[in-house]
Write a structure and sequence with these properties.
Blueprint lengths: L5 H13 L3 H19 L7 H7 L6 H28 L8 H22 L3 H18 L9
Helix pairs in contact: 1-2, 2-6, 4-5, 5-6
Length: about 150
């Protein structure tokens, strides 16, 4: 399941179409993304991001650059969405948004490694849904700071 380009854009747009609230649309997006990944996880050859990162000397420079750009774009998308959420909701506890972004990154790509290693494709969706629940717990009962 691609994390950049059309499918990611489509799921983001769909989530925002279903809810104008930044928190709720992000939660919807994470649910849609988990469903999409679960439907295609068996088709994935493994985590190419990890392969490129750990085998960088074996991979062409342009592929490494594309990998770095994809990671940066993914992180920026989640950071922008989380920034939007904290403008509307006060977190229930202090939270470093960069760490929260990376937790999402780790949930997606780390779970592919676990799934391939253990043969348990359900791990990917489960980790995404756990990340979704983490976001919900951090913000859902927080004080609403603004009305959309």
């Amino acid at each position: 399941m691609s994390t950049s380009g059309g499918s990611f854009d489509h799921l983001s747009a769909r989530a925002r179409e279903l809810s104008d609230d930044s928190l709720h649309s992000f939660l919807v997006f994470l649910k849609l993304y988990a469903e999409a990944v679960m439907a295609h996880v068996d088709l994935a050859p493994g985590c190419l991001v990890a392969t490129v990162a750990f085998q960088e000397r074996s991979v062409a420079h342009d592929v490494r650059v594309a990998n770095t750009e994809m990671v940066a774009a993914w992180r920026a998308r989640f950071r922008d969405w989380l920034d939007e959420i904290v403008r509307e909701y006060r977190p229930n506890a202090p939270v470093d948004l960069e760490v929260l972004v990376d937790a999402g990154w780790s949930a997606v790509f780390g779970s592919f490694t676990i799934a391939k290693t253990t043969g348990r494709s359900d791990v990917v969706g489960a980790q995404l849904l756990l990340y979704r629940e983490t976001i919900r717990q951090i913000f859902a009962r927080g004080e609403r700071l603004s009305q959309v």
